[in-house]
Amino acid sequence: MEKEKKNSGMFAVFAALGANVLVAISKFIGFGLSGSAAMLNESIHSVVDCGNQILLLFGDRQAKQASSNLHQFGEARAKYFFSMIVATFLFFGGGVIGVMEAFEKLIHPEHSVENPWIVIVILLVGMLIEGSSLRIAFKEIAELNTDKLPIFKFLHESRHSEILVIFAEDLCAIIGLLLALLGTVLTMFTSNPLFDAISGLLIGFLLMAAAIFLTREFYSLIVGERVTDSDLSKILSAFERPEIKQVINIRTTHLGPTEILIAAKIDIISSEEAHGYGIINSIEEKIRQKLPDKKCYIYVEIDEFDEHYNR
């Protein structure tokens, strides 16, 4: 249970929620004092991020629902559904609102940025808070990345949707703060509010790009992805037994981040057919030993290999 909690990836969600509440409050204060388009966009960004974490926490609770007659494998994929909502409605919606606000400032560049030094201080504080949240996300990734994959390869292959959302969110937050800082500084030294509007526009586009990337990833998870190459190798190794003549086929799918369905059909040698049930039980036990961090639903069928059989 302790290991499952450690590897759940949800600690980063709590850390990000606390960070974003503080950052959102400071940004709205900064916007009220400055009228900065970039600061308004950043304020919207932080509110969106708080909504993200609340939905992810709700999705995590739903994913822990016990199996029922209707959902016989439980509701672990609820995480993917709520992650998709975060990506489409909150990330993309927040990006669209931000772009609209910034575009309004862009076509009416007479707006001014008041108290720029207050804005700069708030942005720098925001960077420190978001940087701490991103550091926690990196720590969670390091714990989940047991195969030591390059970080972007791990994020692409990971079935933990919540850690992908938090990493994308924290990374966008840091980049967005840098853009807002750059726009504010340029506006302050040139007295041209156009730079502030442009930085707000870029922040909005950044959120929309993140939404498109995340939506593609979560669509694949909702449809159903097989296990990772590393886990598949471990599963296949459990079938490497002298009693097995051939593995006819094997299919896997993730029912959730840590729950997988494994269905296999094997051909065993004639002299061992009487011990088929024992062989299957041994295979299942070995798979569970090799994947201690996963809840495995395993179904193995004994059949005779036929190369002309339509599978």
From TrEMBL:
Gene Ontology biological process terms from the UniProt entry: zinc ion transport
Subcellular location: Membrane
Residue ranges of every copy of the Cation efflux protein transmembrane domain listed in the record: 13-221
NCBIfam families on file: CDF
InterPro entries membership: Cation_efflux, Cation_efflux_TM, Cation_efflux_TMD_sf, SLC30A9
Keyword list, A-Z: Membrane, Transmembrane, Transmembrane helix, Transport
Gene3D superfamilies listed in its UniProt record: Cation efflux protein transmembrane domain
Domain of life of the source: Bacteria
PANTHER family found in the cross-reference section: HUEL-CATION TRANSPORTER, PROTON-COUPLED ZINC ANTIPORTER SLC30A9, MITOCHONDRIAL
GO CC list: membrane
Transmembrane segments: 12-31, 80-97, 117-138, 163-188, 194-214
Entry GO MF terms: monoatomic cation transmembrane transporter activity
Membrane topology of this protein: Multi-pass membrane protein
Major subcellular site: membrane
Pfam families linked: Cation_efflux
Name recorded for this polypeptide: Cation transporter
